[in-house]
Amino acid sequence: MSAEYKFEGWVASDNLSVRGQMVWGEFEPKKWEEHDVDIEIICCGVCGSDIHTLASGWEPTLYPCVVGHEIVGKAVRVGKDVKNIKVGDRVGVGAQAGSCLKPSCADCSAGQEAYCNGPESVNTYGSVYPDNKGTSYGGYSTYNRTHNHFVFKIPDALASTDAAPMLCGGVTVYSPLKENGCGPGKRVGVIGIGGLGHFALLFAKALGADEVVGISRKAEKKGDALKLGADRYIATDDDEDWANRNVRTLDLIISTVSSEHMPLEKYLGLLKIKGSYIQVG
Fold it and tell me: What residues make up the domain containing 144?
């Protein structure tokens, strides 16, 4: 079967592409397999990882490259081995497009596919599939092809533009909140009210935490934090005694920022005995 559509997108050919020097062009997706889903893209979120990849900021990027890993679109072709998706479904793809999925893999069998370190572990863009199956290309394009295991249905009540950033930024904070028991009876602090932090506030409140506390250096983000669900706010630069005022008040802290100037020992002092501190981002 040959698809009646073209895979086209904003193609980066070198690290100058980070300055906007990408070219719209056609690319060859991975070789079709019957566990795959082709997605006609509706929208794709923006992540800092896209910028780093375009610039070869972490390591040399495999050019040509099409970035974008917060993908929402409509399934237009579904392999015969796919059971969870049907043609016409609105679906999403996050930052991962493949792993070994073998029962013998401790990570995949435990639902921790992101930790699989085999050659089958593939990012949504910029990775090479084993066995000459091709290269992965991301969501700043017309279509995406991904293994169905990494394709998720989007609930009807959720707008595509709201769902897209949840597929990377959202899950980055949702996972540690869920894994560490965020919910009734817990008091949760969120350090950094930026792209990740705003999701952490929303999710902590939605999960039913007794108290959600926004924490940032300046008071200027207090209004936003309260609108997003925070019950109170700590501005560490504006209250010299903030650490003493809040000692042992939190069960869980999600930190979305990292700096050598962060007063980590003071943040840890906010935790109750046996509390948890998770660094993300």
Answer: 8-165
Indicate the DSSP class of residue 154: P
3-state SS string for 185-214: CCEEEEECCCHHHHHHHHHHHHCCCCEEEE
Q: Characterize the bridge pairing of strands 96-98 and 122-123.
A: antiparallel
Indicate whether 45 and 120 sit together in one domain.
yes
CATH label of the domain that carries residue 109:
3.90.180.10
How much of the chain is helix, strand and coil, in % rounded to 5? 25, 30, 45
Q: Which residues contact 148 (CB under 8 A, 6 or more apart)?
A: 35, 36, 37, 78, 79, 81, 82, 83, 84, 85
Quickly list H helices, the chain: 48-54, 106-109, 160-163, 169-179, 195-206, 222-227, 242-245, 264-269
Structure confidence by residue, pLDDT tens digits, 95-145? 999 999 999 999 999 999 999 998 999 999 999 999 999 999 999 999 999
